[in-house]
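Posting this for the archive.
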Amino acid sequence: MFIVGLTGGIGSGKSEVARIFSAFGVPIVDTDLISHRLTAGDSPLLSKIAASLGSDSLNRDGTLNRGWVRERIFSDPAAKQQLEGILHPAIRLEVEVQLSSRAEAPYQIVVVPLLFEADGYARRVNRTLLVDCPEQTQIARTMQRSQLSEHAVRAIMAAQMPRAQKLALADDVILNDGSIQELTEKVREKHEKYIEACRAS
C-alpha cells in the first residue's frame, strides 16, 4: 500500500490540495476530520477528556468545549500531552481502518497537520508532501478564514515546527502561492509522479 503523508502549516492550503487530489480519484484520510468525529456527540472519548482536563472541557450539553480545550492545551504543555495520549491512539486506529478499506487504490493520502511532529506517521508513509507558502500569505489566509488577529496567528505558527525545518524534512513540496488553476496543475504533476512510483514499486 503506497501512502503519501500530506502536511503543511496553518493557512498553507493543505485542505485545498487534498480536495484536488480527491478530485483526481485519490482516497483521502484526514486526521483532523477523524479527530472531530471522535470528539463529537456522545463519543466515549469525551468522558476521558473531562476526567483528564476537567469538567470545563465539556459544554453543558456534554459536547466538547473546543475553544476552552484549544486555549488550555496551547498554554499548558502537560494538558496537551494528556489530550494527545487520549486522542492519538484512537485516531491512528481509525486511520488504519480507512486505509485498509481502500487498499485497492494505487495510492492514498493521509492528511496530518503535524506530520513531522507526531509520533509514528512519518514512518508509516512512503512519501511526505509539504504544502508551503510564504509566511505572510499564511497569516493573511488564516486571519481571513478564522477571524483571528495577526498576533494570534503568529502565536500558533510559533508553536509549530519552523517552515525551514519542514522544508528540509519533506520529500516533496508544493508551493501554494498562485491561483487555483496553478495549484491544480502542481497537484496533477505530483499525482502523476505518485502513480508512476506505484507502478515501479
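Strands lie at 2-8, 28-30, 107-111, 127-132, 172-175. The first strand starts at residue 2 and ends at 8.
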